Amino acid sequence: MPVHLLIVSVGSSSVKQLRDAQSRRLIAGPLCHVTKQRPTREAELLEGGSVYWIIRGQIAARQQVTGLERLYDHEGEKCGLMLDSELVETELFPRGPHQGWRYLEIADAPRDLRDLVEESNSDEDSEGELSEEMAAELRSLGLI
Measured between alpha carbons, how far is 29 from 104 in angstroms, rounded to an integer? Predict the structure, then answer.
């Protein structure tokens, strides 16, 4: 069963800003996020795991991990998380800042926004739809 990673997107104030920064980096080649530690649950991560990006205190987007690379610099060995170029927006979930990355179990991962849109389009009886921001606020208050 896959496992995911939670990483704070330092310097990004929105998913659009992260997407724009990554599209500029794609010109040079595949996306690689460098971390100090290699995940010990490497096999689970490579079974379909993703990096979930925390932006402004909310889990807001994810990218599938396509591989892990061993990288070296003057400090020693690092781990390069190779990422798919598709940045998928997720439902917003509050999450505090941390350094490095944390594991995120599949059961705790937020759903993709596109899946939520498909669900709401297939629900004929839905009347007033909540905006994603309103849903995030209600979740942070423990109301949904």
Answer: 27
Count of CB atoms situated within 10 Å of the CB of 83: 20
Model confidence pLDDT, tens digit, residues 97-127 = 899 999 999 999 999 988 876 666 665 555 5
Helix H or strand E segment including 121: helix 113-122
Phi, psi of 127 (to 5 degrees): -105, -90
Cα(98)–Cα(82) distance, integer angstroms: 21
Secondary structure of residue 60 in the 3-state scheme: strand
| Strand residues in 56-135 grouped as ranges (E) | 58-73, 76-83, 88-94, 101-105
pTM equals 0.82
Q: How far apart are CA 84 and CA 50, in angstroms?
A: 9
